[in-house]
Amino acid sequence: MRVDPRIYLQTKFPNARPRKGGTEIKIPCIFHSETNPSLCINLDSGVYNCFGCRQKGNFAKLYMKLERVTWQVAAERCMGVYYEKFPERKPVKIELPNQLIPCSTMMSSYLNGRGFKKEDVVPFSVFWRLGDRMVFFPIYDEKGKLVSYGSRKPIGKSEYYYPDDSPHMDYLYGECLKISDGVFIVEGMLDAIAIHRAGYSVLATFNTNYTSAQLNRLQRFVEEGRCSEYIVMYDTDASDNGDSLEFELASMGVKVGQSKLEYGDPGDKTIEQMCKIIENLKKN
User: Which residue range forms the structural domain that includes residue 207?
Assistant: First the structure.
């Protein structure tokens, strides 16, 4: 039976201060310490907003916090949505092609032309091929195991190519590297390298059509203490997808924000430009 927001909230907070003719209640925020109540909750929908710490979200996220249950349990009880565990994929053996040159040994001319230096790409173990100058980006899981790779041609279409049956959309680019609070989530692999070289933690979803498996990993990284907050920074032309990703993560109980670029994408920015963008973000 689905939990009714009004009945649950009135029972949970019988002495709460009513607002707006009884359609809302105001209580001390459960997300930060305070003496004066600043958390407003709509009794009909359960949607909440704190005017102190700016936390906001839906009833399922609030229920998860109050009852100390997982997002899956909260979603089932409050929204009638049942989340099944994802079935294990059939193992796919992925190997990098032969005769690749590590960028640590000899830097790719294509990446040099894009403004990247050897020290920028070495943490990501990037390779390239002499014949067609195609660049190869290995994709590792959080334990450092190779799970796939993406390749990109230096001329022609600016898109990535992946092996047949590649499971890369079950993972995040850069998850094997150390991450900390305020992890940026970007679209592409070069975007991730651009932010990492500026000194910030980053993960990439490979494109704006992120998957449920990736959402689960992002949630788990928070639950395991690898990080506590994400900042979505998709390309300028993918702001709608960025809004969607921010909402999905917030609905799962994950602390998340978004930084919208005025133009272009992170992979086009110099270190100086990226640092300036992030510093301005911190000020706001």
Answer: 100-283
